Amino acid sequence: MSYDKVKQAAKLIIGTKQVTKMVEAGHAAEVFVARDADPRITIKIVNLCKMMGVKVTYVDSMTMLGKACGIEVGAAMAAVVNE
Hints:
Layout (H helix, E strand, L loop, with lengths): L1 H7 L3 E3 L1 H10 L2 E7 L4 H14 L2 E5 L2 H8 L7 E5 L2
Parallel strand pairs: 2-3
Antiparallel strand pairs: 1-4, 2-4
């Protein structure tokens, strides 16, 4: 399950702004996007990932992604970052 990848990531970036920065800088290995997040937010990062050649993995919900990231609130997206 993709949540395991999130939980096992050595370095994880959570949130739209930070994920966008990491993808633009070429540091993101994989981006996880919650299916129930606002499409106006997620479409930009998905397109950016396509341009930059970063794998995008969809997960069921913001709540589950937040839990997998170890935070108490939902997360629209998270990125696994290369060291």
